[in-house]
Amino acid sequence: MISLRHRAGAMMTAFGCLTALTAGLAISTGTARAQVAFVAADAKWEALPKGGKFFGEGVVAAKDGKIYISDITAVPNPEENPGGTIYRFDPATGQTTKHLEPSGQSNGLHVDKSGGLVIGEYQGPKGGRRISRQDLATGKVTVLADKFDGKQLNGPNDVTSDAQGRIYFSDALYGASEPMELPNSVYRLDPDGKLNLLSREILRPNGIEVSVDGKRLYVGACNASALKTNPNGPEKDAFGITVGGIVAYDLDQGKIANGKLIFRNDTACVDGMALDTDGNIWVAQHNGNRQAPKSAITVIDGTGKVLQQLPVPDDAKLVTNLGFGRGADAGTLYMSSAAPWGLFRIKTTKRGFYLE
Fold first, then answer.
1. Is the dihedral of CA 60, 62, 64, 70 positive or negative?
2. What is the pTM of this model?
3. How far is CA 180 from the centre of its chain?
4. Is residue 187 within 8 Å of residue 169, measured between CB atoms?
5. Could you give the 3-state DSSP secondary structure of residue 341?
6. Residue 163 DSSP label
7. How many CB atoms lie within 10 A of CB 120?
């Protein structure tokens, strides 16, 4: 997710400042391989029933196949902000309904191995700035982490987990005006509740995924200079990412090492990501410019080689996150968008990867 302000006018200013990104989306410094049919020849994007209003994020499928998606409900009048909403789309009925409100300005969503909905509660005037988990059977929400070394988290952006139940999340300042206490960081939360700092190398971490084999941690970056700078650091990106990129870390028992930049884009941010069962990474990219939006989905392999770029519908202004369906719907890719909120889907030739 990119910059959020307390008021819509400030938001438009933040988005407008990104005019330097309005050139075409340069997808990678590498050369794309021969085209692979990731989407069926007759497949078309379908716009799904509206739920949210402003900023869609965190699209994910639960074990029963229902799709959950955030709305970071920033509105012109703060008193009208419900504090974030999570919506639920049912592929069986085609209906979108309100699931949880307030949601702590929920951003990234993730369904863990046990079937719980892990929520990255974002920043802003009504942001929870914490990691929570909802039991989808009972509706009960439990706070998992809100502080590191006694200091309030900035506002978890995106979240994932591994087969051992460890949760990984990005935590960065993007645009909120409240004071921050910690640098932009990547964390690991263990099942016993211990929160561990993994990295402060990426200027502004965003999307995050554990590879299919559990041996790598992929972290996306949205480092556009127009976005707000965290006074706590880091001062610069250790991998030289100027706008968008993906860093792959070796992952062993929850510990990371040997970070390597595998994908770089100097005109478009990397926002949310999703994996298919072949280990390919489906990347949501956008220029962050609300007035002249440009978005794309780029499919890369685990080494960062571009396999295909997928066009997106014109009414999907800023593509923010991706998630596959489950079960009979596992070959469907769902896409969230922002400014305005949107949920779309398309049939693919791949199946989404989830921990079972």
1. negative
2. 0.91
3. 21
4. yes
5. coil
6. T
7. 32
SS3 of 209, please?
Answer: strand
CATH 2.120.10.30 fits 8-347, yes or no: yes
**3-state DSSP call for residue 122?**
coil
Residue 153: CB atoms within 10 Å = 25
Dump pLDDT digits (tens) for 54-106.
899 999 999 999 999 999 987 667 778 899 999 999 999 999 999 999 999 99
Matching residue, tokens 């009972």: 138
Cβ-contact 80, 25 below 8 angstroms: no
Which amino acid is located at 11 in the chain?
M
- Tens of pLDDT along 122-181? 998 899 999 999 999 999 999 999 999 999 999 999 999 999 999 999 999 998 888 999
Kindly give, in sequence order, each residue whose CB lies less than 8 Å from that of residue 315, ignoring residues fewer than 6 positions away. 47, 342
Structure-token pair, residue 256: 């990371």
Q: Would you call 314 exposed, middle or buried from its count of C-beta atoms within 10 A (0-12, 13-18, 19+)?
A: exposed
How buried is residue 231: exposed, middle or buried, by Cβ count under 10 Å (0-12/13-18/19+)?
exposed
Q: What is the largest CA-CA distance in the chain?
A: 54
Six token digits for residue 106: 């929920």
How far is residue 180's CA from residue 347's CA, in Å, rounded to a whole number? 41
Cα distance between residue 163 and residue 231, in whole Å: 35
Bridge partners of residue 309, in order along the sequence: 298
What 3-state class would DSSP assign to 12?
A: helix
Contact between residue 146 and residue 130 where contact means Cβ atoms under 8 Å apart: yes
User: Encoding tokens for residue 57?
Assistant: 């994020």
